[in-house]
Amino acid sequence: MINRQRITDEFARQAAIDSPSYQEAEIAAYLEQRFRQLGAEVSYDDAGPKIGSQSGNMLARLPGSKPGTPFLLSVHMDTVTPAENVEPVLTDGVFTSAGETILGADDKAGIVEIIEAIEVLKEHQIPHVPLEIVVTVCEEQGLLGAKHLDFSLLTAKQGVALDTTGVDVVINRAPAANRFKVDIFGHEAHAGVCPEQGISAIQVAGRAIARMPHGRIDDETTANIGTIEGGQASNIVPRQVSLQGEVRSHSTDKLRQQTELIVKALEEEVDKASIVVNGETKRAAMTLELKEDFPLMQVAEDAPVLKLIRAAGDALGRPQQIRAAGGGSDANIYNGQGIDMVILATGMDKVHTVNEQVKVDDLVKVTELLVEILRRA
Ligand SMILES: [Zn+2]
Question: Is the pLDDT of residue 326 over 90?
Fold first, then answer.
């Protein structure tokens, strides 16, 4: 049923439109007319100006040919860099870039699979419920587009994001994450002449870090200090140091507990760091910016959307592997908004490198699965 030439042409066209994060105007204009051509009504939310992107998130609504609650499909239109003058090259059924840039199969493979699936639904008059298709911007910038998505525009309660490597793989769980930035302030002094008159911000940070949970905490939880930056010169007791770090967990309780342990280690070490100079007490201080980076994604094994995908895979003789992921994606944001969304593999490979690739065979296979899912949704 899948038109191999059509999907090949569609991918080549989209890959040749540069769309690094924030610069999505051109791909948005293309997709807007493409989805309209397919009979969808296309609109944008107001995320663009909020995040400094050329485009808002796109919502394409395709009327159903049978009644039912809309089913959600989600992809992202932005890519990582280098993405200047991307030239897709097709060799022996495999798309790569010409070599200097990424290919952008992440996430254009997913976009073309949705478009081809709709072509097939129409061509073969396969009954389907209404579709809500969201194409986010700035996914590669910490999910910025999805974080600013206007969820009041959506009525779907379940769906599929097409945005992971492999084929016949479904992600149903991904951790929640907290991110933090801490500034620790000590007091500067000459390191050789009067170090006792200073409080080393670096030493305070070091003591706190040594006490913190770090690395793999358990099979669900990780913690990391990713950057440390501060001090002025080797002969100055450093006045200030900044740390950035994160905690991730598949359990929101553990996420909270580990985050609290980190904050406690920092606060206690900062509290302890005080000196008396000429009868005057000097203390260390800190500021903490702590925020939820993304919420938990946890779709139950027996959730209707997973049953649907399993049944579709089985019908094609391709049992789907259900897995957990270690990273966050737009699907975390949807789940945080109460929408049961899992992630479907799109066939893309070696993503975020100039060796990125996707096989036409895999574009076809994923589209077959998607058509089967939509037929049953
Ligand atoms: Zn992606």
Answer: no
> What are the E-state strand segments in 55-138?
58-62, 71-76, 88-91, 94-97, 131-136
Question: Any idea where the domains of the chain sit in the sequence?
Answer: 4-174+296-376, 176-294
Q: What is the distance in A from the centroid of ligand 1 to the CA of 66? A: 31
Distance CA 102, CA 355 (A): 7
Read off the pLDDT of residues 203-220 as tens digits, 9 standing for 90 and up: 999 999 999 999 999 999
* 117 CA to centre of ligand 1 in angstroms: 19
Beta strands in the chain (DSSP E): 41-44, 58-62, 71-76, 88-91, 94-97, 131-136, 158-164, 169-174, 176-185, 215-218, 221-230, 240-249, 274-277, 280-283, 285-294, 297-298, 321-324, 340-345, 357-359
Kindly list the distances between the CA atom of residue 99 and the CA atoms of 24, 86, 108, 113, 134, in Å, as whole numbers in the listed order: 22, 9, 18, 24, 30
Q: For residue 76, how far is its CA from the centre of ligand 1 (angstroms)? A: 7
Place of tokens 């959600």: 72
- Dist. CA 301–CA 321, nearest whole Å: 12
Fold (CATH) for 176-294: Alpha-Beta Plaits (3.30.70)
Give the catalytic positions in this structure. 78, 139
Instruction: Give buried/exposed letters for 38-49 (b at 16+ CB in 10 A, else e).
Output: bebebebbebbe
Q: Tell me which of 3.30.565.10, 3.40.50.10320, 3.40.630.10, 3.40.50.300 is the CATH number of domain 4-174+296-376.
A: 3.40.630.10
Give 29-35 contacts, CB < 8 A, sequence gap 24+.
31/58, 31/60, 31/77, 31/111, 31/135, 32/58, 34/115, 35/60, 35/62, 35/115, 35/133
86-129, pLDDT tens digit by residue?
A: 999 999 999 999 989 999 999 999 999 999 999 999 999 999 99
Cα 110 to the chain's mean position, in Å?
A: 14
